[in-house]
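In response to reviewer comment 3 from the previous cycle, which asked for concrete evidence that the modeling workflow produces usable outputs, we include below a single protein chain processed end to end. The sequence was submitted unchanged, and the resulting structure tokens are shown without manual editing.
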Amino acid sequence: MSRAERTTVLRALWRSPAVAGPAALVERNLVIYRHTWYLLLAEVFEPVLYLLSMGVGIGALVGHVPGLGGGDPSVGYVDFVAPALLATAAMNGAMNETTFNIYGKLKMLHTYDSILATPLRIRDVALGEVAWALLRGTAVTVVFGAAVAAFGLLHSPWAVLILPGSLLIAFAFAAAGLAVVTYIRSWQDFQLVQLVMLPMFLFATTFYPLGVYARPVQIAVECLPLYQSIELVREPSLGVMNAGVGLAALYLLVFGALSMALALHRLERTLVP
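The workflow returned the following structure tokens.
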């Protein structure tokens, strides 16, 4: 296929109804957020603080975490924590967009009432918002990843897989957030969201390995989506490529697809009179 033919195909794909609707919503969000892009720095600043305090500060006391890093029997604590914080940054960037921001559009500003008066449909709204959240989560990850690289914490060529891994993490949690926000009744309900997110952040091997738990607890932790997200990023960054990475990717793909299906169903009930 020639270059001109590829260009024609891409243009036709971009203009197709399946892509044009979500793309229009992404463009709308881009126009709105281009003047407030600096707000994303807050989402980067938080994991950087964790990296400095927990990874560098406490890492000086902990030293090395045993039993990780492929052939190396141990890995530096800051090298262990940094990929987990990177995965968390992708999660938070996507979740913040499809929970807090979409709740305001859905319940306070009634933004989607106006959007649905155009040729756009609920499916376009859902896919467009998830695509925008994915871009936002990836942007946060790229900036934080640059900070991690500046600290010299990326040692393996497999670290190139961090970006596609972050895209998958952002998709899974953006879809989950879109499903969750349809159940939110008031701003106070976001405390329930934090009641789930904070313990998951603390116990999903962000700051210590899975081996510290008894086996029954390990099984419960392995079921957490953040644990799988951390594994998807941490293993390649430490130079480990095994079946666990593929299983983590499959878990997040299925989790995101099921969450997306639930979100579409719930939005149909919420937005259709």
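The chain is about 75% helix and 0% strand. We consider this sufficient to address the reviewer's concern, and the full set will be provided in the supplementary archive.
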